[in-house]
Specification:
This protein is an alpha/beta fold. It has one domain: Vaccinia Virus protein VP39 (Rossmann fold). Helices cover 38% and strands 17% of the residues. The chain has helices at 3-10, 14-17, 22-32, 64-68, 106-116, 127-130, 134-139, 142-147, 153-160, 192-196, 199-202, 210-222, 224-228, 230-233; strands at residues 37-41, 56-60, 76-77, 91-97, 117-125, 164-167, 170-171, 237-238, 242-247.
C-alpha cells in the first residue's frame, strides 16, 4: 500500500496515540537552532511543530486524513516529499520527522530537502538497532522483514551529505506512540489503536503477529517477560535506534 493511501486508512484518530514528547521535541529544535524559516516535510498532524512558535513554518503533508487533524497554527501544503511545490532555497531548515522510511523515492525526497533549504534535520531510524527491539526479535519478527525494504541510516546520511548523527534515547514514558515507544510498557501492544498508530503493525496481516502477541500475553501473565527483561524495568530511557541526522 502506498504511504498516502496507508495513512488515509490508518490515520483516523492518529493524534490520540501520537502525541508530542517534549524531550524529543527539545532535541529536534536544538538541532534546528535559531533558524527563522522552517519547512516540515511529511508533517503528519504537526505534533512537533510547537517549537516553531515565533518562526515561519510551512508544513508539507500528502494525506488528507492527517491534514484534517492538524491545528490551525501553521499553514500546510498537500504534496509529497519527492515533489515539493516550493522555491529553491526558500527556507533556513527543512525537517523530516519519522517519515523518510515512508517515501517512495528516498534519494529524490532528500534531494528536495536540500533544494528548498540550506540545512536539513531528519529524525529517522537506524533499522539495524530498531530490529533488536525485544518485541520484534521475540514476538513479531515479520516487522523486521518490512524494515529490510526501508532505507538504511547510511543511505539517509549519504543522501543528505550529513555531517552529524546524534543518538536520541526514547524515554520510558514516551507519549508519542511509535513502535519503539512502548519498550517498557509491553501491554500497550495489545491495544488495536496503538497497533494502528504504528506503521510496523499496520502494514502486517493479523496472522503475522497474533500468535506472537498471544505468547507475549502468556509471558506477561507468568512473569517470564519481566524476568527476561528485568534490566529494562530499571531504566528511564533506551536507545532503540532513533537518530537525528543533521546536514548543511
Amino acid at each position: 500500500m502506498a504511504p498516502v493511501a496507508r495513512y488515509d486508512c490508518i490515520g483516523h484518530g492518529y493524534i490520540r496515540h501520537r502525541r508530542t514528547d517534549p524531550r524529543l521535541a527539545a532535541r529536534l529544535w536544538a538541532a534546528v537552532g535559531p533558524a527563522q524559516t522552517v519547512v516540515n516535510v511529511g508533517a503528519g498532524t504537526g505534533s512537533y511543530e510547537g517549537g516553531a512558535a515565533g518562526r515561519t513554518l510551512i508544513a508539507v503533508e500528502p494525506s488528507t486524513v492527517m491534514i484534517e487533524q492538524r491545528g490551525p497554527m501553521h499553514p500546510v501544503v498537500q504534496a509529497e516529499a519527492e515533489h515539493l511545490p516550493l522555491p529553491d532555497g526558500a527556507f533556513d531548515v527543512a525537517v523530516a520527522i519519522l517519515t523518510v522510511h515512508h517515501w517512495a523515492d528516498l534519494r529524490l525526497g532528500l534531494s528536495e530537502l536540500r533544494r528548498v533549504a540550506r540545512r536539513q534535520v531528519v529524525f529517522g531510524i537506524d533499522p539495524t538497532l530498531h530490529n533488536h527491539l525485544w518485541l520484534i526479535e521475540e514476538y513479531a519478527p515479520a516487522i523486521a522483514d518490512l524494515m529490510a525494504t526501508e532505507p538504511t541510516l547510511e543511505e539517509v546520511v549519504d543522501g543528505l551529505g550529513a555531517h552529524t548523527v546524534e543518538v536520541v534515547p526514547v524515554p520510558a514514558d514516551c507519549p508519542d506512540g511509535f513502535l519503539m515507544a512502548y519498550w517498557q510498557r509491553p501491554a500497550a501492544y495489545f491495544d488495536p489503536a496503538v497497533q494502528a498508530g504504528t506503521s510496523g503493525f499496520s502494514r502486517l496481516e493479523p496472522a503475522d503477529y497474533v500468535e506472537g502477541l498471544a505468547r507475549l500475553a502468556a509471558d506477561l501473565d507468568n512473569g517470564r517477560w519481566q524476568r527476561r527483561h528485568a534490566d529494562l524495568l530499571e531504566r528511564t530511557e533506551l536507545d532503540v535506534g532513533l537518530r537525528l541526522v543533521i546536514a548543511g
